[in-house]
Every structure is written in structure tokens, then in C-alpha cells.
Amino acid sequence: MFIKQALVLTTLLLAGCANNAVIRLQKLDSTTIANKNIQVLDDGRTRDSIRNIIGSKLDEYGFQYQVVDISKTNNQNADDGPKLTYSANWWWDMATYMRYLNVEIKDEGKTIALVKIDTVRCGGFDKFGSAQRRTEITLDLLLSDLTAEEANELICLGE
Predict the structure, then answer these.
(1) CA 4 to each of CA 13, 14, 17, 65, 110: distance values in angstroms, whole numbers, following the listed order
(2) Helix (H/G/I), strand (E/B), else coil: 157
(3) What phi, psi does 56 have (nearest 5°)?
């Protein structure tokens, strides 16, 4: 009996049925941001391609933004407005893939929007996929009316 249950569970995981990539979500209420102006904090490790994706999505949803390089000491450009941070964690398993992706917006030190995804929770080979596409979907989830269920489905497609 145990062997049969283990085989069924293994088959489901390898088939990608466990698509729960979104592990935490606090959607942005854009009415909480005066003038829809956001600072994108760049820690010096974020690739240009990711900054371009973030900028493109903020433009798409009507936000004004500026990129603030916080990797330099004594940076005087950051003000007290809303701040968006991005972090990704890359793993290797037969190929390099983006394991975790976190996007957070804070205002006055309080989190006003947050999305965390874990691609391994997609199951099987679905963890491999386009980091660009997954970043776009994650930002859509944070900034639009895309649901967590819809985002999970899209993230776990592995495109």
C-alpha cells in the first residue's frame, strides 16, 4: 500500500500538478500611493534586463518611477516615498533556474504590496522556465487584477 501511494505522489509531482508557486501575496492598492510615484531601489546586483521589465510594467500600469542606486554609500537620492525592491534567487538542477522571486513595495517603512514565488512548488520540470516571463507575471499579479490562481497557472507553464 505504501509503495502504491508513493508512486502516485511521485507521478503527481513529476507531472507538475502541484502548481502553488505564489507563496505570499499582498496586492497593491494603488490608491494608497499619492501621484502613483514609486522609487525602484537598485542594490547594484539587479540586471539591466530586470530593471527594464520592472520599468515597463510600471509604465504599463501608469506609475511614475525613478531608479535609485542604493549600492553606493551616502546615496542622497532616496526620499520618503514608496519604494519597490526586487530579489531573485537562482538554483541549479540540471540547468540554472530562478527558484525564488520576491517583489515588495514599502511606504513609510510599512509593506503595502508583496509577492513571493517559489518555482519548485510548480512541481517536476515546471520549475524551469523563463525568468523574464515569470517576472512579468509576478509584477502583473502585484499591480493588476490578475488572480493568484491565474498567476500560478501562468508561472507554472514553464514558458
Answers:
(1) 14, 15, 18, 54, 48
(2) coil
(3) -60, -45
Q: Give long-range contacts, CB 8 A cutoff, 24+ apart: 45-54.
A: 45/71, 46/86, 49/132, 50/86, 50/88, 50/135, 53/132, 53/135, 53/136, 53/139, 54/84, 54/86, 54/135, 54/139
Average pLDDT per block of 10 residues along the chain, 159 residues long: 51 53 85 81 74 91 88 61 82 62 89 87 61 85 91 78
**CB neighbour list of residue 52: distance below 8 Å, 6 or more residues apart:** none
Q: Which residue has the cell 499579479?
A: 141
Helix (H, G, I), strand (E, B) or coil at 126: helix
Alpha helices in the chain (DSSP H): 2-15, 48-60, 131-143, 148-155
- Say if residue 20 is exposed, middle or buried (CB neighbours under 10 Å; 0-12, 13-18, 19+): middle
